[in-house]
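Hi R.,

Here's the input for the 26V complex you asked about:
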Amino acid sequence: MDVKNRLQEITRAKYGLELSQCGDSQLYHALLQLTQELSTARPAPKGERKLYYFSAEFLIGKLLSNNLLALGVYNEVNSLLAQCGKSLSAIEDVEPEPSLGNGGLGRLAACFLDSIAALGLPGDGVGLNYHYGLFKQEFAHRRQYEQPNPWIEDEGWLIPTGEAFEVPFGFGPVKARLFDIAVPGANSGVANRLHLFDVEQPAPAPADGIDFDKTDLPARLTSFLYPDDSDESGRLLRVYQQYFMVSAGAQLILKELEERGFALDTISEHVAVQINDTHPSMVIPELVRLLTQRGLSMDAAVEQVSKTCAYTNHTILAEALEKWPLTFIEKVAPQLVPILKELDARAKAAHSDPRVAILQGEAGKEIVHMAHLDIHYGYSVNGVAALHTEILKNSELRHFYDIYPAKFNNKTNGVTLRRWLEVCNPRLAALLDECVGPEWRTDPTRLNKLMDFYNDSAVLDKLLDIKADNKHRASDLFARDQYGIRLDPDAVFDIQVKRLHEYKRQQMNALYVIQKYLEIKAGKLPARPVTVIFGAKAAPAYVMAKHIIHLILCLRRLIENDPQVRPWLHVAMVENYNVTWAERLIPACDISEQISLASKEASGTGNMKFMANGAVTLGTLDGANVEIAELVGPDNIYTFGAASNYVIELYDQKAKDSKKGYQSKVYYERPAVKPLVDFLLDPALTALGDEAALKALWTDLTTKDWFMALLDVEAYSAARDRAIADYGDRAAWARKMLVNTARSGYFSSDRTIAQYNEDIWHLS
Ligand code: 26V
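And here is the predicted structure with 26V in place:
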């Protein structure tokens, strides 16, 4: 297709205008149409076996640039627009960001779809079409407030398919309408689909905030991702959502299997189902139910499903491992109960250890352990980074590993460098083309060749120049979109962007800010000005996480108001951090904060994106940081803190005797730590905020500190000071940047997906 002619035809037909006469919104819609035409014209990839990637989240981000790139017309469109005096980035501002995800798990699913299509593999995503997303975060009174985040427009990426499936809930059948989003593969000529199910008559957004009647079903099934589950109606709603997704998805699978001409009892040869964390686990009993209903014996159905489904674990936090009361399933999908009991009985007959049971607890009060279901009836169990998989095998899922050692495997996460380098950092991408050749775009291991330029001062200078440029760009956008707040692009950009969780330890970062504040007030200046940038949403019912946001926003104001401190230290927190902000901030980062308590962050994927863009990691030896450290070597990363084995040992001691193990009080009493924590109660701070919230945080840190911020804060502070000091040797720092980018090829999701395919999916 001649892109220029077609685009002109579209704008003439749609608006009666030439390209150069169109506004950004008109151009966006014209490009959307062009992109959709090109994507839907592509064939689906072929293969013996087709993958269905089931996930509660797909954090796909804006699609225009990404899809233009995948379709091979990005450069052409870019220069065409430039000729008309238009800019693609201004046009992209018009595009709403789909809010179909929360954090790492959802963004990983999006990177995976991108890579599956790029590798030409047959694999579709299956999820839900949430109308108001997770929530839109707003700051007022230095607190987080939640609002609906509507993103669906009349003309957008969703393609109505006209297909629908009936989902049999306990209260009656509900139609699941299927919408698709096309997923064109870069350089593969094919396109897959993201299948999103929706109700027929979705409810309107709540008038204010995200509170709504959680019993208003089916209309509310697709309103929000992870509705508040602090009461029973919220928890039930999650189970309703999950069953809606998996029942419709399972029916879609069987329909396509039949269309492809394969018999039901060969499903495992032709279908792979990847269960992304436990949210979609009910797909296992649902497939068994549908197969037996259609004539397979229970034995055959169980065998087929067990060879079809595979499970990925994304978290070792016990509280995030889903367990549902059987009474919930009885209410939501009573037809699954006999199947779950049968699956449980079979597992119990084979394995008497009660710790591996699917149904636990006395009759009438049974709890369904979703991960246990996945492990018994899935053929693969994978962790998402080497350390994480080892911890699953040796600690969290030890009893299962003893039974099924061959099922366990590691698939270290990856990210698509098309979005996370080519599109978001075009100047760096162009420099890489010059240095290592454009082949890195299809073979990211070629980035290793950048090491040849380790002593090339011209290349090192260019790296610094690109970084400075990206910092200016990010600062401009920050001022434009974040209430005029100005960042200082000449300061060190030190960035922590991720979901807010105590284990990720944004509170430890805040304690460091307090330390620098107190030092500056006492006349001890840092090596150079530092801008500390946060971005994080807290789950609406997660009180401590909200207190931490409050602390950060109070610190921001305190410092901003203080002319003595302001030139040296600046705190910024992005409101409504999302994929779009990640694309702006990551290329602008100097120091990447990856400071989770060792053993708690399954992998991290932001760490990989920062690394590829030449940020230097300041991190614990947790998740994929361990692999980053091995790849870049000790001179090119700042690691600190307690090792994962030690942390696990501390938890074990505490479980046996609450007086043993980690005692935060001991660390609080240390002279370097106490003033930082006590500052939470300082009138300078409490005057700006909610004293009760700050006090609650103080009490938690001094008496509990479950994620051991005080254990590591001194080592953290020392490592961070060292990094900020080292930043001053610009040539040496540029070498660290170069090594990080050079070694980031391993973390391409193309590599991860090739491994999933080789070891688990066997698609072609
Ligand atoms: C858990 C919960 C608990 C209740 C509130 C809502 C909610 C939502 C999601 C989850 C599961 C979170 C799992 C998750 O996102 N894990 C992340 O997965 C990334 C991709 O593998 C990985 O890089 C991160 O380390 C891991 O935290």
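One thing worth noting: Residues 476-731 form a domain with the Rossmann fold fold (CATH 3.40.50.2000).

Cheers,
M.
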